[in-house]
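Hypothesis: this fold can be encoded by more than one sequence.
Test: take the structure tokens below, design a sequence, compare later.
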């Protein structure tokens, strides 16, 4: 589920007929935990373009804020309700070589620890009295939300064709 204020994308997996190929393939995975993995992976794949748009629109593309965008599972949800959060997060992180190769982060060396700056995102999005607003989260959600359900269906279809799915079913 993508959300920002009043914007949400919902994908309900209810009311399938027994002959529906999606539900049939999902039922082939015996473990509920593995079914969750398949669905979460598809949700993350579908939300990747939204996350990339948020990162690309961040005010300083070489700063810590632009490195803070992630797709995370929602933890406190009702039973059989799955969700993802797409946005900036806070917390410790270690500089990897890929960050330095692409000049995505300045002022750090490989192996240095830094704090992700998700807590600053609302200041960049809404502005302060010292800096103008630079919206990048809401435009990314508006742009990609209308196609999220279609991308989620495609991502699920792609996962059913991969080794990841075959491993879950036990065909590999």
């Amino acid at each position: 589920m993508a959300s920002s204020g009043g914007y949400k994308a919902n994908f309900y997996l209810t009311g399938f007929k027994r002959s529906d190929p999606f539900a049939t393939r999902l039922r082939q995975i015996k473990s509920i935990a593995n079914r969750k993995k398949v669905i979460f992976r598809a949700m993350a794949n579908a939300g990747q373009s939204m996350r990339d748009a948020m990162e690309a629109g961040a005010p300083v593309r070489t700063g810590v804020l632009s490195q803070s965008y992630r797709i995370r599972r929602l933890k406190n949800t009702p039973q059989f309700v799955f969700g993802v959060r797409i946005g900036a997060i806070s917390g410790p992180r270690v500089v990897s070589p890929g960050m330095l190769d692409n000049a995505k982060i300045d002022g750090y060396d490989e192996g240095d620890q830094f704090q992700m700056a998700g807590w600053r995102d609302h200041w960049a999005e809404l502005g302060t009295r010292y800096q103008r607003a630079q919206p990048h989260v809401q435009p990314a959600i508006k742009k990609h939300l209308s196609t999220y359900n279609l991308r989620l269906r495609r991502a699920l279809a792609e996962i059913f064709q991969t080794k990841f799915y075959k491993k879950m079913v036990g065909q590999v």
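The CA atoms of residues 22 and 157 lie 8 Å apart. The chain is about 40% helix and 15% strand.
Hypothesis status: open.
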